[in-house]
Amino acid sequence: MKKQDRIKIVISATVKSPVARVWDLWTKPFHIMHWNAASADWHTTYAETDLRKGGKFLSRMEAKDGSFGFDFSGKFTKIELNKCIEYTLDDERVVEVLFIPEGKNTIIKETFEAEQENSAELQKTGWQAILDNFKKYVETTIN
């Protein structure tokens, strides 16, 4: 499929925490390993980030029963502290994550290009579940 024909999916969540803290918990590998899963039977066993334009990232996502796993990886194309992260996945799909302050809260808005294996609805549901898990992690983690 040509790049211009890719379906773009948008998800969002309002997190009850200031943008600087949200950014910190979103970008640090220690924290990524605690929230980066769509359901309780999955987890992230490894994460690394080189948070700069041209830097790479990798998260190893695995089913807790060991039946399946995959790497989620790519390269950062734009970093604006506490505002925006853009990256290109290894399969060349583009993702944009915006961090929008709203009083003491932060709106996270993610836009990503759909892949071809799974339905757009399934992808939206999965990515939203991960974002919701992040929200829960932030709001239940002590400063």
Protein described:
The protein is α+β, with helices and mostly antiparallel strands and 143 residues long. The chain has three helices and seven strands, in the order βααββββββα. The chain has helices at residues 19-27, 29-35, 120-140; strands at residues 8-15, 42-49, 56-63, 69-80, 84-89, 94-102, 105-113. Strands 1-7-6-5-4-3-2 form a seven-stranded antiparallel beta sheet. Helix 1 (19-27) packs across helix 2.
Question: Can you summarize this structure?
Answer:
The chain has 143 residues and is α+β, with helices and mostly antiparallel strands. It has helices spanning 19-27, 29-35, 120-140; strands spanning 8-15, 42-49, 56-63, 69-80, 84-89, 94-102, 105-113. It is built from three helices and seven strands.
* Main beta sheet: 7 strands, antiparallel
How many β-strands, per DSSP?
A: 7
Total of DSSP H or I helical runs spanning 4+ residues: 3
Broad shape:
globular
End-to-end CA span:
44 Å
Record the strand order, biggest sheet. Answer: 1-7-6-5-4-3-2
Beta-strand share of residues: 35-45%
